Amino acid sequence: MKNPKKEAPFPTKDQVLEFIRESPYPVGKREIARAFHISGDDRVALKELLRDLEGDGAIEKGGRRRLAPPASLPPVGVVIVTGVDVDGELIARPLNWSDPDREPPRIIMKPERRGSPALGEGDRALARLARIRDDLYEGRTIKKLGGDQTAQMVGVYELGPDGGRLRPADRRAKADFIILPQNAMDAAPGDLVVAEVLPSSRHGLKQARVVEVLGGIDQPKAISLIAIHQHGIPVHFPPAAIEQAEAATEPTLAGRTDLRDIPLVTIDGADARDFDDAVFAEPDTDPNNAGGWHLLVAIADVSAYVTPGSPLDKAALDRGNSCYFPDRVVPMLPEALSNELCSLKPGVNRACLAVHIWIDAAGRIKRHRFVRGLMRSAARLTYEQVQAAFDGAPDDLTGPLLDPVIRPLYGAYDVLAHARSRRGTLELDLPERKVRIGEDGKVAEIGVRTRLDSHRLIEEFMIAANVAAAEALEARDTPLLYRVHAEPALDKLEPLREFLKTMGYNLARGTAMRPAAFTNILDKARDTPESELISTVILRSQAQAVYQPDNIGHFGLALERYAHFTSPIRRYADLIVHRALVRAWHLGDGGLSDEEMGRLDKIGELISATERRAADAERDALDRYVAAYLSDRVGATFSGKISGVSNFGLFVTLDETGADGIVPISTLPDDFYDHDEAHHCLLGRRHRRVFRLGERVKARLLEADAITGSMVFRLLNPDGSEMPAGRGSGTGAGHRGRPERRRERERDEAPPSIDAPRPPRRRR
Q: What angle do CA 577, 580, 584 make, to 5 degrees?
């Protein structure tokens, strides 16, 4: 008789924690259960054990609900090479490290395979990361970002007492670089230049060589050029890609559904130059769908022109998405496509991929059908035009369209908006800065972007189309890139709960967090002095939305499945979804290839990284424009609020312009200050003076540097008088200069929604 199989003992907390810490990659619950032979009812006990470890702060949950020690790096991330160690190994750090209290782990870069791109100091790369210990990782290059330039930086060429100097535009740079006369490339003092770092000794300032002169720093284009070059945004298309785009021809009806008699219209910003989506709505005539609507969303058929593996395709993937700056757009596709053949201009034939969507009176999608069509836009409308027409002030263009087109659009929107409210999405209504550039190329005005129902109308139509795309691909068991947004991690929820409690708001605990829980608090806080503060703190607790082939749903939009379909001109993810639909539903040529289907995970990793790159570049450019706008007002006093708290000082956001900058802790009133992270404040040890997130303040502008985009303020008393100078921090972290990152900012999407279906259009 065989002895009964002996069951493995249930692991202790320490054993599970040791397993997670020793794993080079974040692990999932299934892997832990397999390692300790846990099955049956013991899985419930394991879940409780892991929840306890999260509650203790010993582990944290990252992407795809995988577990790792706190402050761990993800398995794939963007790194920047910082130098070479004594053994000749390339050393890098994570590009987006935002924890001011902890040094980023060191990353030793290893080539992934023969032929991998060579990296040098200053290079950025998408890399696979494996933990060796908490402060040390091994990285293997997936893709070098920002072209083939190595160890390059952008800055201003100046003359110093010992010759030429490069003043880096990157605020994280610790020192200037020496530029010898033979390495100056005819640069004049005050020129914005691109320079590469030269090998040099370990002592004294490093040397650099100018490789490109971009023009005077006072030229209108200089500010956005700094962000473009600093973040490695590709600006030049390969000749083969340009040639392919310019060889494209007007579409014909062959093999397409004729949609030209349907009065589809585009609705965009007044300064938009490309129009890639058009909409139409009418009441559903089906007697079984009383109160329902038939929607039609037509999207430019980019997949007809940008085929898998072509020069255009490779260039588009390298960019990942378009980048938007106040004075220009760096497009994902050449203008022969983005501004012409793929732009749904009125009165001309354009190829489109369109979806018919039927919704019921409650706003639920009943069914949908995708077609490859030929359309002719009935009108190019602006948000302001459409809203004015609906509100009773039509113009010559919108007047004839009011009853047959505009009113039905609002009728369908009303139903979709009620459905959104019922499912409980996360509604963060934070102000968004808008920079208007004058004819001289300088900042003419900084204000807050207006939100109209016409904006929300287009958003709801695009969300419905994106959901339909995901459903249509799932119906054919076709792999796709989902747009996923995980629920907030426990290590962010608990501090948020404690902070909200101090403000009189209760965020209930539960097994499954829902976005409606946050929206209920936001509704209660609306029209109160702390409304914007509550919105900001909740936004910072959210996870970052990414692209991946594994669906975990979209928390912010409260959707089980979601894919980006509506902006293939400016997002590579949407182009992938278009190709998948073409393949799955047999809509013609240009479908997703087998090779692409096999590497959707890598494509998702890459375009998630390029999206983050673009967002950082856009934000940095905006900071520089605002700093330039305020540079002649140094010494002036402004009203604002505390928008960030850290152990090295405060961040203040001004009411007038939305500009923000640092208040060094050394300038605070005479005391020693401790950073109370849970309550988002600095607390004086002796006098118990508190500086809290959201507090109204007056501040004097001390510095405004358009080159780095940084601003320094000093707080004043409410009557505008000076506060006595301070002594620093009581946590052993006095003022250490400007932080590498200005503050922990929005994690993913621009307000007002956690995942706006398309970015605002700006003049190209």
A: 140
